[in-house]
């Protein structure tokens, strides 16, 4: 979905757009940041659980508590989006919110204490220091420079889904999650904004926690991309204006994104389609780890995650195509071997197709 939100804002490209986007200062005080090694663009997209923008009726239906419950917002979902330097491919990498990280030294929220660097969870960095500390933590963990930051609230999410006329999802098993309040039979469903929000937040019905939830979120992102591209949303001025109005008031972007950036991005992103957007989760060695003083954590696979970030940093392909050695006529005619060690999926793949 994040790609589509960025594209919708970009394609509109009118003079008033950049002035209407809510700005958030995130990069100003960051030091010792990784160097850029290509002209590719890296976005960090955070789904905040802020209730700001939701009506009381929506809050009641979602059963997520009052607007005061998460007035500052917490990081509910995190994606890193890499757009290639040629702007013809994109990777969307899910970052588990319980990832074990070293949270850098920072000032306490009340501004009175210096907190030293210590182990913690990734979403704790957002809770302790907002977007700047989260970016600093991710850059230290990945050695990858974040170029832009986007934050989408509950209201922004529901507005996007409703503006697209609902999103189709499918589940092989029935879902009854008392925490997200989602009740859904097995099979294919078209969800409106509020039901879709329940769907991407549900995590406790299958025992797979955040890992299962991230897989559903990736499928949902792909479904949004398919819906937007197949319906012509991004090329239809009327649909695009509706889409824009649903997102612009509830999306925050860093101060560095200006009108020219949006217009340039709009032109470059026209090469993107659901077939060359790949989704994946950062490789894990232990999704159910435990660390004293931190609690249950998700631990990345040290070797595979390092390879992933190196490839993204150098703007390289994530899927390798290995050609057979032409030592014989049989080998010469063999098909190249495709190696996808990061287990990526394309947004063109429709998990609901088999359910129809």
From TrEMBL:
Gene3D superfamilies: LCP protein. Residues 323-356 are annotated as: Disordered. It holds the Pfam family LytR_cpsA_psr. Residues 74-229 form the Cell envelope-related transcriptional attenuator domain. InterPro entries: LytR/CpsA/Psr_CW_biosynth (IPR050922), LytR_CpsA_psr (IPR004474). This is Unannotated protein.
């Amino acid at each position: 979905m994040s790609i589509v939100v960025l594209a919708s804002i970009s394609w509109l490209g009118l003079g008033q757009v950049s002035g209407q986007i809510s700005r958030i200062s995130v990069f100003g005080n960051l030091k010792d940041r990784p160097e850029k090694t290509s002209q590719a663009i890296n976005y960090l997209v955070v789904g905040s659980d802020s209730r700001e923008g939701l009506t009381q009726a929506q809050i009641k239906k979602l059963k997520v508590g009052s607007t005061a419950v998460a007035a500052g917002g917490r990081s509910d979902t995190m994606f890193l989006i890499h757009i290639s330097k040629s702007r013809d491919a994109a990777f969307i990498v899910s970052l588990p919110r319980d990832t074990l990280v070293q949270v850098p030294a920072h000032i306490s929220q009340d501004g009175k204490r210096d907190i030293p660097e210590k182990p913690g969870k990734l979403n704790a960095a957002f809770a302790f220091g907002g977007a700047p500390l989260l970016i600093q933590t991710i850059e230290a963990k990945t050695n990858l420079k974040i170029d832009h930051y986007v934050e989408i609230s509950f209201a922004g999410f529901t507005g996007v889904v409703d503006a697209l006329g609902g999103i189709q999802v499918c589940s092989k098993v029935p879902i009854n999650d008392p925490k997200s309040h989602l009740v859904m039979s097995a099979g294919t469903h078209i969800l409106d904004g509020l039901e879709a929000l329940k769907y991407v937040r549900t995590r406790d019905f299958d025992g797979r926690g955040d890992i299962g939830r991230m897989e559903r979120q990736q499928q949902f992102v792909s479904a949004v991309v398919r819906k937007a591209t197949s319906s012509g949303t991004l090329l239809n001025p009327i649909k695009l204006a509706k889409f824009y109005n649903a997102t612009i008031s509830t999306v925050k972007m860093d101060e560095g994104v200006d009108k020219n950036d949006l217009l340039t991005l709009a032109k470059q992103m026209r090469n993107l389609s659901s077939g060359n957007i790949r989704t994946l989760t950062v490789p894990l060695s232990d999704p159910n780890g435990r660390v004293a003083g931190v609690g249950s954590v998700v631990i990345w696979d040290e070797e595979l995650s390092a390879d992933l970030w190196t490839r993204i940093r150098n703007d390289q392909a994530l899927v390798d195509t290995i050609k057979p050695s032409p030592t014989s006529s049989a080998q010469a005619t063999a098909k190249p071997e495709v190696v996808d060690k990061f287990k990526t999926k394309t947004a063109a793949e429709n998990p609901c197709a088999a359910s129809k």
